[in-house]
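ok so I'm stuck.
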Amino acid sequence: MNFNSHLTSSPKPNKPVNHREISYIKRIQKKKNMIKNYFLAGIPMLYLIASCNSTSGSQDGVYDTRAVESLDKMSEVIGMLDACSFTLSTYAYERDDTGQVSSYSNENDVYMRGPDKMHIRVVGTKGEFGYWYNGSKLAFHDYKKNIYDIVDAPERIMEAIDFLHEKYGIDFPASDLFYPSITDDILEHFNSVLYFDNITIDEVSCVLIEATNEKTMLQLWIEKDSNLPHKILLVGQSDEGNYYEGVFANWRVDPKLPDILFEYSPPSNTTRVHIKQNSKN
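replied:
not stuck anymore, here's the structure
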């Protein structure tokens, strides 16, 4: 996989519609989100998408109903899962206030079992790490430095993800896409959301959702057969903008994931070093 590939050229989209024409679909989706038992429901914020907020808002934007329906379907499929596992390969670069560019790439093996089990193994530019969450504790292991820590965490996956981001600055791969109101959040933060059909990427037939505002372009490929995400791109609209790419593979739907997968016992030769908290804490 080439992480430096350019954005896929977009074919002519379906005719877009005004925001008011999708209000009924949005109301139905909100109702679904309230009554369904999402195993990954309740993440209080979208870490990547929220950072793409448009200053003009999206109430006067243009949206394609097919894009909204595809996002709703993806959210519904994810929401019905009891467990899942996948591999997410990511590449990103960003420019800080001084103009310095930093980049990284990771391969993340992710295992989740609702409502309170998660294990992630990360291998990439910054090292090799493991995370184990069992519903009350989150363990962190740095394989290169041979250090670990175990901290208290909230009792559900989504609450734990938010807590760890806020307190320790730990971000978990592609958590945005598992948020049950992903559709409404995209509509809120982008003022154009378009739909492209019959897109083949990595030999997988997908639909492509393309959302833009004056700051950012979001592209999301959703697999047509499974309605699960296949690839996501977030690209800054300026010449010096940030870039994030994630490609999903090896999806397993409702696998049998044993309790032991989510438990961590530090090896005898490791040293406990407390995870550094965010300065605001």
